[in-house]
Write a structure and sequence with these properties.
The chain is of the alpha/beta class. It is 43% helix and 17% strand. It is built from eleven helices and nine strands. It has a seven-stranded mixed β-sheet, with helices on both faces. Strands 3-4 form a two-stranded antiparallel sheet. Strand 3 and strand 4 form a beta hairpin. It starts with a helix and ends with a strand. 38% of the residues are buried. Bound molecules: S-adenosylmethionine. The site of S-adenosylmethionine has 22 residues, from helix 6.
Amino acid sequence: MREGEGRHAARAHRVRRGTGTLYRKLQSLKFLLTRDRRAVLSFLTRDLGVPMSTAERLALLARFTRITNEIRGYHTLVEILTVTEALLERAGRGPLLLVECGTGSGSSTAKLSLAARHAGARLIAFDSFTGIPENDELHHFEDGRELRFAKGAFKGSLSAVEKRIARFGAPERVRLVKGLFHETLPGFAEPIDVALLDVDLASSTRSCLVHLFPRLRPDGVLFSQDGHIRETHEMIADEAFWREEVGVAPPEVHRRGDGKLLELRPR
Ligand SMILES: C[S@@+](CC[C@H](N)C(=O)[O-])C[C@H]1O[C@@H](n2cnc3c(N)ncnc32)[C@H](O)[C@@H]1O
């Protein structure tokens, strides 16, 4: 074997793992049958606010799985089903609003748009659409390891996300709002039923909580997918932050899914 041939052979046999590959489809199937099995069974059998047959629930799960296979995402099926169920449980009571902050490449947004279609809800999704903003923030995992979020990480451009929602989701349900949260959220004044934050930076979580939490309806719920970050927990546990910056009583907090998803309810 000549020099370099071994390397070429190894490259040729390397398994492709990106979006759209067979590897990714098999991984989704494996998770459906193992890690996500309980959440899937619960979704198939639980009472929801709107009639939804088993066939419709299976079809929604199939579409979620297709999106997972085709668009890079940063959530688990358990997490997205938790938010989907929170929305569907509130369906049928009048106008329903779901807000998402942090769309990334559009995987979570496309799935939530389908959930919104079933629930008769609207989805408003906020993002810079240029990825994580410039920052010098140092974060930590809960076990103390350091974690930084680089400028531009998780970028999905507005046009790319729009196209993916049009292809895989329910575009008629969605409004995308481009800009930094501290610029786009202050003008937002609608009552929110369900919100999902996946924004990584503590400063971003702060902006979202300050501007969105007071907009939650009394029976509304806000989820944060940043429960793996120590600084997020410190903020949420800080009574003075809630009373002085957000202007509400500290919320009821629960861990959901595998623990990374936090559920916050107004008191
Ligand atoms: C981890 S990604 C979201 C992933 C997506 N929810 C998913 O599961 O596929 C985090 C997103 O937050 C956005 N983001 C973070 N801080 C922001 C800020 N201050 N203003 C606007 N967007 C922000 C980034 O642009 C990025 O798209």
